[in-house]
Amino acid sequence: MFRQLKNIDTAFRQVRLFCLAVVAFCLVVCCFTLYKSFNLVEASQARVYVLADGKALEALASGRKDNVAVEARDHVKTFHQLFFTLDPDEKSIRQNIVRALYLADGSAKQAYDNLSENGYYSGLIAGNINQTITVDSVAVDLSAYPFHFRCYATQNIIRTTSTVTRSLVTAGELRSVSRTDNNPHGFLICRWTTLENKDIKVINH
């Protein structure tokens, strides 16, 4: 009888150890499955699909810190293209300037007001003059915040009788702000100033 009880106790212990082993194995499998699932979700969220010409193209999403320099340079470039690309049309000038002023602080508004008071825009319209700009390079210093930048560009002022090419060098600071439809890069140009704006050459037509 005692041997029978001993066999039952041994069998019970073996069954208990087996059950514990099965439970531990299941916990390990569940934890591994959850870990792989979270990794898969993160990987899928990092994928961005862009629809172009009816085709879904896969792109990779990355954090802003990976693209700060690129976005900062493009922000400065976009601002200068909007502010200095002018056609002899009041509505077109106003549209470009309004879009540019969303990207900068009061220093850009002050520059616009000064040009308006000096009759610069009315002179473009009256003289049927086109002004274009090519941004040659933008240097941004990311070692300190706000980020300092310097923009090097070339202006072409096209008149009916001549084309004037001018060098343009500006500088300022970039401060981070919320992204909006009007400011997709999330930067604001501050303390913007013109360091150089001089004639390089004049071509008579």
The N- and C-terminal alpha carbons lie at a distance of 122 Å
List low-confidence stretches.
none
Structural class: alpha+beta
Q: Which strand order spans the largest sheet, edge to edge or round the barrel? A: 3-4-5-6
Gyration radius from CA atoms, angstroms: 32 Å
Number of helices: 5
Mean pLDDT figure: 85
CATH class of the largest domain reads Alpha Beta
Give the tally of structural domains: 2
Q: Could you state the order of secondary-structure elements as H and E?
A: HEEHHHHEEEE
Task: Choose one word for the global shape.
Answer: rod-shaped
CATH level-four homologous superfamily name of the largest domain: VirB8 protein
Query: Could you tell me the strand content as a percent range?
Result: 25-35%
Number of strands: 6
Which percent bin holds the helix content? 40-55%
CATH topology value of the largest domain: Nuclear Transport Factor 2, Chain: A
Largest sheet: 4 strands, antiparallel
* CATH architecture descriptor name of the largest domain: Roll
